[in-house]
Amino acid sequence: MKRSLDSLALFGGAPRFAEPLHVGRPNIGDRQALLRRIEDMLDRRWFTNNGPLVQELEQRLVELTGARHAVAMCNATIGLDIVSRAIGLAGEVILPSFTFVATPHALQWQGIRPVFCDVDPLTHNIDPARIEELITPRTSAILGVHVWGTPCDVAALSGIARRRGLHLLFDAAHALGCSRGGRMVGRFGEAEVFSFHATKFINSFEGGAVTTDDDALAKRMRDMRNFGFAGYDRVDWLGINGKMTEVAAAMGLTCLESIDSIVATNRANWHAYEAGLRDVPGLALHAYDASERCNWQYVVVEVDAVTAGLDRDLLVEVLHAENVLARRYFYPGCHQMEPYRSRYPHAGRVLPETERLTERVLSLPSGTAVTPATVEQVCELMRFVVGHGPEIRARSGRR
Ligand code: T4K
Questions:
Q1: What angle do CA 30, 255, 329 make, to 5 degrees?
Q2: Which of 260, 274, 296, 313 holds its CA 20 to 30 A away from the CA of 267?
């Protein structure tokens, strides 16, 4: 179909997609299986407090990750909070700024200072070469984030942590079902924290889990997620309500049963994007290592404004007008958000790669709500937009 600039919704045309295409549309799995589990749960009248569905989900996570323990939580943010307290983190923790703001918030919430480290421009993960210069006598841990499900350089991080006597944990919110060196995420560092938020690859509406091989740590986290109760009337720790509900576990189990087909859909969508955007100047799709296990959940594009003829923000604006609701994850970087922006105004000085990335990346719709045919249409639209970048920039009044 021949298109003119006037066919773009930004300049008066009808949106290319009648319905909004969201990033993060939930995967559901077998609806009937979910409803059966909920019926059973209602019959049992056991809704929360370590119910049978939560225990079954924990067992499935142990099988999937290979970790000795999986402790289900109401969400990953509380999981990060609880594991940090259970390990006894204090002072400062080194982590990337290129992550969702939940990662530093879980630390700052308990008075631990997040010290932001720059990332590797290829993997988008914390750069081990930049960590040592940030270590001070107050540093208690390194918190890596497996961004987009690509595992961090765990060997390098483990080496630094061991040498410098630091704890090491991972925010694995994106990385369920992913491996590095053939080893599944879930057993790296002292503990790893998964998210099952609605937008995640496997969801439990809201939910999360912490995996660990450490028996004592697992026990402490189980108590802490239940107000610190270690028996009927005995409270051993400062605790909080971090429990996962049975209905959440029902959804988590149902999604997990469909894990292979969800991965297959994500992989097909990712390859459709790859084929559709391969030759588009200035757009580079973030790649995964196909020799590892991978959930292919995130479709992340880096925009080189000079080559593409328009920058990431204008591209996102055009896509939104067309009902493709691309997201600027992770813009503007946690160090540019409050309270970090005010507390640590100079943090950006040591984060050049982070600042570069936050201006260039966007996430595109994928998951089971999107088909490869739709992906092809999105790519066709992006090809058209990039092909007319300078004209679009001029018509939109951008310099
Ligand atoms: N660590 C990392 C690295 C993370 O990425 C996250 C969460 C966490 C820790 C914390 O995990 P949790 O405590 O949440 O378990 C979304 C998610 O809310 C957040 O969980 C996720 N990362 C982050 C990357 O994305 P927002 O603020 O962008 O969410 P929202 O409501 O704008 O939704 C995103 C998109 O999903 C929209 O385009 C609409 C679509 N959507 C959303 C929901 C909730 C649906 O289509 N259906 C839905 O039910 O943060």
A1: 125
A2: 313
- pLDDT tens digits along 81-129: 999 999 999 999 999 999 999 999 999 999 999 999 999 999 999 999 9
**CATH code given to domain 259-396:** 3.90.1150.10
For residue 343, give the H/E element and its range.
helix 340-343
Query: Does the domain at residues 31-257 carry the CATH identifier 3.40.50.360?
Result: no
Residue list, ligand 1 pocket, CB within 6 Å: 22-26, 75-77, 99-100, 102-103, 145, 171, 173-174, 195, 197-199, 208, 325, 329
Residues 6+ apart with CB under 8 A from 305: 282, 311, 312, 360
SS3 301: strand
Mind listing the pLDDT tens digit for each residue in 356-370? 999 999 999 999 999
Residue 267, C-beta contacts closer than 8 angstroms, at least 6 positions apart: 294, 296
Classified as helix, coil or strand, 333 is: coil
| Amino acid at position 108, single letter | Q
